[in-house]
């Protein structure tokens, strides 16, 4: 960045990873993390760039676009990242709602491609031979950045709108490594999002630590109780002064590890 004398600010981490940024960070003693948000794909991943005043597509229209992208055989034949490959990760790793439809996370943001697909990033969720979100995360986001010398990986948005979303997809349920659950008023078996999150984070944590790397997360209340033991650096965005009791709980559950708040 253009920040003059960055050493004056007590900085510790950087989330941008390039060959030059890694070298610069290491000269200053900073720890360098590479970004990923494997719980979903915004519409940009399949090539969507809507304007702010464009009408929001229906679920049926989104599915038509998704299937059209996935059918691009020419792009798939290149074996390099493309909207067609991303479409297949959504079709294979997508979370189902109770009606058997691919789940879209609430909230529409045109500049990020519109809607965000809810995905199961567990390394066990998708049968071998099909492109999964886990595989794509490693091949497109994790390995290239570690090869540049990044010190670790930064997981964004460990947040309830994903971790509390139930997954009713039968093939995912069959491959879950954690017990299924059900709602108090509905006996239908489901996989709570926190458990396929856990399967990915536990896998990544063990992998990174085995390579001498670190894992950081933007982790929101009250996901700490599931994941803190797998992480090296924790914290989350905040838009104001949080409740003191909650901040004390966050600090306590982090134990001796760094806990940071990012004021937006």
Give a brief description.
The protein has 264 residues and is an alpha/beta fold. It has helices spanning 19-28, 59-70, 73-76, 83-93, 133-147, 160-163, 170-175, 193-210, 224-227, 244-253, and strands spanning 13-14, 31-36, 40-42, 104-109, 114-118, 152-158, 166-167, 181-183, 186-192, 214-219, 234-238, 259-263. Strands 1-2-6-10 form a 4-stranded parallel sheet.
Account of the protein in words:
With 264 residues, the chain is of the alpha/beta class. The chain has a single domain (6-263), classed as TIM Barrel. The protein contains ten helices and twelve strands. It has helices at 19-28, 59-70, 73-76, 83-93, 133-147, 160-163, 170-175, 193-210, 224-227, 244-253; strands spanning 13-14, 31-36, 40-42, 104-109, 114-118, 152-158, 166-167, 181-183, 186-192, 214-219, 234-238, 259-263. A four-stranded parallel beta sheet has the order 1-2-6-10. Helix 2 (59-70) packs across helix 4.
* Relative strand content: 15-25%
The CATH topology: TIM Barrel
Q: Roughly what is the average pLDDT, rounded to an integer?
A: 93
Helix/strand-derived category reads alpha/beta
Helix-residue proportion:
25-40%
Summarize the helices and strands and which ones pair or pack.
Layout: E1 13-14, H1 19-28, E2 31-36, E3 40-42, H2 59-70, H3 73-76, H4 83-93, E4 104-109, E5 114-118, H5 133-147, E6 152-158, H6 160-163, E7 166-167, H7 170-175, E8 181-183, E9 186-192, H8 193-210, E10 214-219, H9 224-227, E11 234-238, H10 244-253, E12 259-263
Helix pairs in contact: 2-4
């Amino acid at each position: 960045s253009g920040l003059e004398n960055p050493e004056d600010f007590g900085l510790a981490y950087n989330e941008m990873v390039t060959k030059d940024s890694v070298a610069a960070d290491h000269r200053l003693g900073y720890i360098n993390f590479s970004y990923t948000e494997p719980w979903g794909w915004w519409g940009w991943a399949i090539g969507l760039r809507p304007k702010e005043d464009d009408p929001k597509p229906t679920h049926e229209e989104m599915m038509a676009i998704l299937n059209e992208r996935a059918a691009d055989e020419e792009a798939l034949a290149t074996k390099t990242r493309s909207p067609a490959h991303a479409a297949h990760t959504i079709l294979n790793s997508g979370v189902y709602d109770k009606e058997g439809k691919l789940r879209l996370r609430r909230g529409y943001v045109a500049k990020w491609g519109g809607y965000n697909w809810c995905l199961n990033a567990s390394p066990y969720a998708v049968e071998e031979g099909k492109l999964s979100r886990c595989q794509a995360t490693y091949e497109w986001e994790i390995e290239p950045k570690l090869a540049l010398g990044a010190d670790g990986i930064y997981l964004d948005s460990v947040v309830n709108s994903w971790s509390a979303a139930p997954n009713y997809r039968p093939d995912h349920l069959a491959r879950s490594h954690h017990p299924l659950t059900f709602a108090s008023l509905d006996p239908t078996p489901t996989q709570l999002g926190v458990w396929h999150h856990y399967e990915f984070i536990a896998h990544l944590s063990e992998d990174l630590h085995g390579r001498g790397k670190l894992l950081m997360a933007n982790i929101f209340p009250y996901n700490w109780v599931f994941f803190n033991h797998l992480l090296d650096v924790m914290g989350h965005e905040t838009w104001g002064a949080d409740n003191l009791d909650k901040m004390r709980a966050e600090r306590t559950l982090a134990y001796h590890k760094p806990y940071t708040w990012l004021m937006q």
